[in-house]
Design a protein that fits this description.
Blueprint: E1 3-6, H1 10-21, E2 26-30, H2 37-40, H3 72-85, E3 90-92, E4 98-102, E5 105-110, E6 113-117, E7 119-122, E8 129-130, E9 144-147, E10 162-165, H4 169-178, E11 184-187, H5 205-221, H6 227-238, H7 248-253, E12 257-259, E13 263-267, E14 270-273, E15 283-286, E16 290-291, E17 321-323, H8 340-359
Parallel strand pairs: 1-2, 1-7, 2-3, 7-17, 9-15, 10-11, 10-15, 11-12
Antiparallel strand pairs: 4-5, 5-6, 8-16, 13-14
Helix pairs in contact: 1-8
């Protein structure tokens, strides 16, 4: 096999599409049972922050109203339709355990199965492991605790007060939804907010004017090759995003108690803030993000920031190993559905060039 792609989300499917266009064979392996389930498992009310016109992958626009904001199930269905439309070679239900070096190529281990490949593309995204502080285990077991990846709707929660930890856009989205049925506290530093109003249905007139300009800046000016992008990249990779659809005023209007202290530990089974306050709550939802974990890729080295050493997804130390879908891989839009196609095309061309070099006869 020329190339194994690990992950059948937008990054993996876009890469498979780009490889197929230039005659490079590949196989996509994904742990989910159905293409698109990486989106379907999010909370029920989740909607994308970009309208449909910016959510298409190469070769296939997102269907429907181009200025509507798709929900998570619509995004999952789109990915499934995308793979079917281009007959992309995907094997679902295959969880990759390890990638090891073998001669000039790789062995991809998945349970009892193994796949030999000249190239491997890691398309599992920037973050995969829920990040929860160690002291969370000391909370009173009667307190219901969920990570945002486990949260689906307020119906999951126990009666009583809810503490949402982490005040970036996912924390704000969940807090305002939970506040409709529970007394809610949102805890964490202020991450700022976007000045443009994003609705739940269709883009406003102002958004339609601002969005094309913003997209151009994010994809052409905020890149790893510009001073702006180089300054922005470490910040984007290490900080929670600003409030998007839900703004500070929306939280206040919904009755969410906004606390800017951070959860620092546990006292007598209850969450303790860094200002000394102890909160009496029945539920805690950890919107504390995810961490990347690539220790299953043998010989991969990371930088001081903990991220894989790569440039535009190419791992120079391990020829034939690539990434697609990393946060700020080549530009700000690398982490957005509509921006991943550019990175996928770059990696596909690199793989094709490598195949050409490897196929050349050695001169006597």
């Amino acid at each position: 096999m020329n190339t194994i792609i690990v992950g059948a989300g937008q990054a993996g499917l876009a890469t498979a599409y780009q490889l197929s266009r230039i005659g490079q064979d590949c196989l996509v392996l994904d742990a989910h049972q159905r293409i698109g389930d990486n989106w379907r498992t999010h909370w029920d009310s989740l909607k994308l922050f970009t309208p449909a016109r910016y959510n298409g992958l190469p070769g296939m626009p997102f269907p429907g109203d181009r200025w509507a904001y798709p929900g998570k199930d619509a995004m999952g269905d789109y990915l499934q339709s995308y793979a079917a439309a281009f007959a992309l070679p995907v094997r679902s239900g295959i969880a990759v355990d390890r990638v090891t070096r073998s001669g000039g190529g790789f062995i991809v281990h998945a349970g009892h199965e193994r796949f030999d490949a000249d190239n491997v593309v890691i398309a599992t995204g920037s973050y995969s492991v829920p990040k929860i502080p160690d002291f969370a285990r000391d909370l009173d077991p009667r307190i219901l605790t969920l990570h945002s990846s486990q949260y689906r709707s307020p119906a999951q929660l126990a009666d009583g007060r809810v503490l949402v930890v982490g005040a970036a856009h996912s924390g704000a989205d969940i807090a305002i939804e939970v506040a409709s049925t529970h007394e809610t506290v949102l805890c964490g530093r202020d991450t700022g907010q976007m000045p443009v109003k994003i609705t739940n249905t269709r883009a406003t007139r102002l958004t339609r004017i601002v969005m094309p300009l913003g997209w151009f800046v994010q994809s052409h000016l905020a890149t790893i090759d510009t001073p702006m992008g180089r300054k922005l990249k470490p910040y984007v990779r290490s900080h929670g995003g600003p409030l998007m659809r839900v703004k500070r005023s929306d939280l206040a209007a919904a009755g969410v108690e906004r606390v800017y202290a951070r959860v620092a530990g546990v006292s007598n089974g209850r969450p303790r803030l860094d200002d000394g306050r102890v909160l009496d709550v029945a539920n805690v939802v950890w919107c504390t993000g995810f961490r990347h974990e690539f220790d299953w890729v043998e010989q991969l080295t990371t930088g001081d920031d903990g991220w894989p050493k790569e440039r535009r997804g190419v791992v120079a130390d391990l020829p034939g190993l690539y990434f697609v879908g990393l946060k700020f891989q080549s530009s700000f839009t690398s982490m957005l559905v509509g921006g991943v196609g550019s990175d996928a095309a770059y990696i596909a061309r690199h793989i094709a060039d490598r195949a050409t070099v490897r196929a050349r006869p050695v001169s006597a």
